[in-house]
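<instruction>
Derive structure tokens from the sequence
<data>
Labelled lines for chain and fold
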Amino acid sequence: MTICRDCCCGDRKKHPEVDHDAQLEAFRGAVGDRHRVRVSECLSVCERSNVVVVHPTPAARRDGARLVHLGDVLEDHLVGAVVGWLDAGGPGVAQVPGELAERVFNPADYAD
């Protein structure tokens, strides 16, 4: 997974109620060495901060699965939902959990 932590994502001014560093550490701790967590610079979808991009497994990608962009990942319980989805197989293998479904977006819809 890739977690945006740049201008708006991870910004205490924009989201003062979120401990962004603790959220990142919660993702890392929850996935352990089962999944890779990358931190990216701005993904240019600031309207949807905090953004988490969930990557399909290589096998799922070969079968046509693509990245899934999640926006507004601001609550602690969403960390568990994302990790649970990854552990179930992630994009192309397991359905997006209900609590994440409304957060799925197409980044092309936000392109300049």
Remarks:
- The radius of gyration is 13 Å.
- The chain has a mean pLDDT of 94.
- Helices lie at 20-31, 58-62, 77-87, 98-101.
- The chain has four helices and five strands.
